[in-house]
Structures are given as structure tokens and as C-alpha cells.
Amino acid sequence: RFTTNANHVTFNADGTQIAAGSSDFLVKIVQVDDSSQQKTFRGHEAPVLSLAFDPRGVFLASASCDGYVKVWNIPEQICEMSWSLLQKCNDVINVNSICRLAWQPKSGKLL
After folding, report:
1. Which of 94, 98, 86 is nearest to 48 (CA)?
2. 3 near 24, Cβ under 8 Å?
3. For residue 25, is it left (φ>0), alpha (ψ between -120 and 50) or beta?
4. Taking the alpha carbons of 32, 8, 89, 84 in that order, is the dihedral positive or negative?
5. Which end of the chain is more exposed for a tag (fewer CB within 10 A), N or C?
């Protein structure tokens, strides 16, 4: 559960996991068939706006109003990479931030 609204929800490629990012700065991944299997990722300092699973389902990318894009290793539950791309803004409505993340299907590169 989140303490505020979820801003983006997405499924992994085979539909077995769902990820959600919220205004309470958290990213959560839940197994669809067993919702008790939940992973929480902390590290953003502002609302999470966008999420994308990589094609293999090993990584999850997240973009936030804090201006960062982070790549999370799902099995290890750690942040593998982090890029500061824009200025921080706590206002979801007026943020000047990344709208949607995507992975290239064949190469697995984050776009």
C-alpha cells in the first residue's frame, strides 16, 4: 500500500509482476498471482512519475520529480544506476520532467 496516489503502474513482459510508483517517493513491485510477494524500492526524493521493466524483467527504471532516473536490480533490490537529468520539483502537475521511460525490446537499452 501507498500513503498517496500511484502515478504510474506497469506490468512486466510476461504479466507476472506489476510495478507502481507513487507520490510518497516509493516504487513497489508485486507478484500478480501472490500479492504477499512485494518488493519496495526507496531512493527517490520526490514523487515517482514513470516506470519501465527491462525486456528480461531483471531491471526496473524509474523517473521522478527529483530529476533522477534510476535503474533498480529487482532480485537484489538495489539501485544499479542513477542519473540526474533535471532540476528537482515536488509539484507533480508542473514538473519539467521525464514523462515516460522505455527499454528497447531487442537490445535492452533504456531510452
Report:
1. 98
2. yes
3. left
4. positive
5. N
Beta strands in the chain (DSSP E): 6-11, 17-22, 27-31, 38-41, 48-53, 59-64, 68-73, 78-84
Which grid coordinates belong to 47?
514523487
73 exposure class (CB count in 10 Å sphere: 0-12, 13-18, 19+):
middle
Condensed to tens digits (0 to 9), the pLDDT of residues 65-110 reads 888 999 999 999 999 999 998 777 766 666 665 567 888 887 878 7
- Cell matching residue 40: 519496495
Instruction: Report d(CA 11, CA 24) in Å as an integer.
Output: 20
Burial class (CB in 10 A: 0-12, 13-18, 19+), 103: buried
CA distance 82 to 93: 23
Mean pLDDT value across the chain:
87
| 57's grid cell | 524483467
Cα torsion 21, 27, 30, 35: sign: negative
